[in-house]
């Protein structure tokens, strides 16, 4: 049976650490697929003008295309070249919620993300996507420092 690991990437160095950690885990398993996920943070509760809404769909498609070209496709290509089974996905929405949904939909046993040192005081007070993921995920979550 093939195991699956979802790795959350954000295009930063910390995301690369998460990917490296996931590769190490995958090597220890007999058969493992790595699912590279890039979530573009988006809130349905953001209020926008009519002009902004008109441009929203076009902007979302551009963001997905950019994330796929700059982060997901190169990661999947590198994983495949290293001998791993790998796929990639880009979504818009709540990071914690979507990473968990991807894990459930694809039958992943684990989610690997990196701790981000960005965000400062606001994130310490209101929490981060990583904290929300750890608190609410339906599968084990590994947070790479």
Automatic annotation (TrEMBL):
<dbReference type="InterPro" id="IPR006015">
    <property type="entry name" value="Universal_stress_UspA"/>
</dbReference>
<feature type="domain" description="UspA">
    <location>
        <begin position="1"/>
        <end position="145"/>
    </location>
</feature>
<dbReference type="InterPro" id="IPR014729">
    <property type="entry name" value="Rossmann-like_a/b/a_fold"/>
</dbReference>
<dbReference type="InterPro" id="IPR006016">
    <property type="entry name" value="UspA"/>
</dbReference>
<comment type="similarity">
    <text>Belongs to the universal stress protein A family.</text>
</comment>
<protein>
    <submittedName>
        <fullName>Putative universal stress protein</fullName>
    </submittedName>
</protein>
<dbReference type="Pfam" id="PF00582">
    <property type="entry name" value="Usp"/>
</dbReference>
């Amino acid at each position: 049976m093939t195991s699956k690991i979802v790795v959350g990437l954000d295009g930063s160095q910390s995301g690369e650490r998460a990917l490296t950690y996931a590769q190490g885990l995958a090597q220890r398993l007999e058969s493992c697929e790595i699912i590279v996920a890039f979530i573009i943070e988006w809130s349905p509760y953001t209020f926008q003008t009519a002009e902004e809404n008109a441009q929203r769909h076009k902007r979302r498609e551009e963001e997905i295309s950019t994330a796929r070209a700059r982060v997901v496709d190169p990661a999947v290509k590198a994983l495949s070249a290293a001998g791993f089974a790998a796929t990639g996905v880009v979504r818009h929405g709540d990071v914690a919620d979507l990473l968990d949904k991807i894990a459930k939909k694809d039958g992943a046993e684990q989610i690997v993300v990196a701790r981000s040192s960005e965000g400062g005081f606001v994130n310490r007070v209101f929490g981060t996507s990583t904290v929300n993921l750890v608190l609410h995920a339906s599968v084990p979550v590994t947070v790479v420092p």
